[in-house]
Amino acid sequence: MNPWILATRPRTLPAAIGPILVGNALALSLTQFSWLIAATSMLCALLLQIAVNLANDYFDFKSGIDTEERLGPVRVTQSGLLDPSKVRNAMIACLLLALLVGSLLIYHGGWPIAILAAASILGALGYSGGPYPLASHGLGEVAAFIFFGLVAVVGSYYLQAHDTSVAAWILGSAIGLFNAAVMLVNNTRDIPTDAKAGKRTLAVKIGEGQARVLYQALVYLPFALVIGGFLLGTLPGLPVLLGGLSLVLARKLNSEFSQTSGAALNPLLGRTAKLTVIFSALFSLGLALA
């Protein structure tokens, strides 16, 4: 496979696609809905996700976290497939391109979107780099919940509605939990090598046993949230019913995660990301039909 495709980590991109899809689907019935804004927000989210992946690849190599003992998929910098400076430059280019594309969103959404844009760029750089890397201090899952849940869903809805809603916050929380589960799989797989390198991820701090309990909560709580939203009259029944179909996959993933460790978790990482986009697609379909 082309090393640049490897560097983008295609299996993680559903983390960016799902929340933007739901945020826009929630606003689909609004008279001012704009397909241009919807497409632009999706492109911007994908660019930011790729930038995060490149930054993680580059900074983990520079800090000595990624070594030959790594259990995860190939890292292009550590493996020598790409020169570190090229990966760094590609990361910067993706961030600048995201800012350029996002300028339309900032113009359309005003100062709240400008604040979210600045926070997202700082988050992309600060996840693995900077003086206090979030991933190395047990905050990776929290960052995924905030940026690929709340910020993405509520932000994309705000761009269309120029307001927020309880439904957007509920859905942002639900999808943020799914994406936090993706991060947890990654960090649980890397417990031995991260602990050796001094990277104190949440999985390293709580151990593999508690990580299994947390994963169960992260993949089941989203369904409780949307059912609660329905019972409160905030979310319509059809999208909750359709989104609930993905519970079958969540149960299967939880069962596998409870019995798997090390490099064998690699396929589960991509499939947990797919859970995010499957739930998002089904829920969005329900919103469109409701």
Automatic annotation (TrEMBL):
<feature type="transmembrane region" description="Helical">
    <location>
        <begin position="166"/>
        <end position="186"/>
    </location>
</feature>
<dbReference type="InterPro" id="IPR044878">
    <property type="entry name" value="UbiA_sf"/>
</dbReference>
<dbReference type="GO" id="GO:0046428">
    <property type="term" value="F:1,4-dihydroxy-2-naphthoate polyprenyltransferase activity"/>
</dbReference>
<dbReference type="GO" id="GO:0042371">
    <property type="term" value="P:vitamin K biosynthetic process"/>
</dbReference>
<keyword id="KW-0997">Cell inner membrane</keyword>
<keyword id="KW-0808">Transferase</keyword>
<dbReference type="GO" id="GO:0005886">
    <property type="term" value="C:plasma membrane"/>
</dbReference>
<keyword id="KW-1003">Cell membrane</keyword>
<feature type="transmembrane region" description="Helical">
    <location>
        <begin position="142"/>
        <end position="160"/>
    </location>
</feature>
<keyword id="KW-0474">Menaquinone biosynthesis</keyword>
<comment type="function">
    <text>Conversion of 1,4-dihydroxy-2-naphthoate (DHNA) to demethylmenaquinone (DMK).</text>
</comment>
<dbReference type="InterPro" id="IPR026046">
    <property type="entry name" value="UBIAD1"/>
</dbReference>
<comment type="similarity">
    <text>Belongs to the MenA family. Type 1 subfamily.</text>
</comment>
<protein>
    <recommendedName>
        <fullName>1,4-dihydroxy-2-naphthoate octaprenyltransferase</fullName>
        <ecNumber>2.5.1.74</ecNumber>
    </recommendedName>
</protein>
<dbReference type="InterPro" id="IPR000537">
    <property type="entry name" value="UbiA_prenyltransferase"/>
</dbReference>
<keyword id="KW-1133">Transmembrane helix</keyword>
<feature type="transmembrane region" description="Helical">
    <location>
        <begin position="12"/>
        <end position="30"/>
    </location>
</feature>
<comment type="pathway">
    <text>Quinol/quinone metabolism; menaquinone biosynthesis; menaquinol from 1,4-dihydroxy-2-naphthoate: step 1/2.</text>
</comment>
<keyword id="KW-0472">Membrane</keyword>
<dbReference type="GO" id="GO:0009234">
    <property type="term" value="P:menaquinone biosynthetic process"/>
</dbReference>
<dbReference type="Pfam" id="PF01040">
    <property type="entry name" value="UbiA"/>
</dbReference>
<dbReference type="InterPro" id="IPR004657">
    <property type="entry name" value="MenA"/>
</dbReference>
<feature type="transmembrane region" description="Helical">
    <location>
        <begin position="90"/>
        <end position="107"/>
    </location>
</feature>
<feature type="transmembrane region" description="Helical">
    <location>
        <begin position="218"/>
        <end position="248"/>
    </location>
</feature>
<keyword id="KW-0812">Transmembrane</keyword>
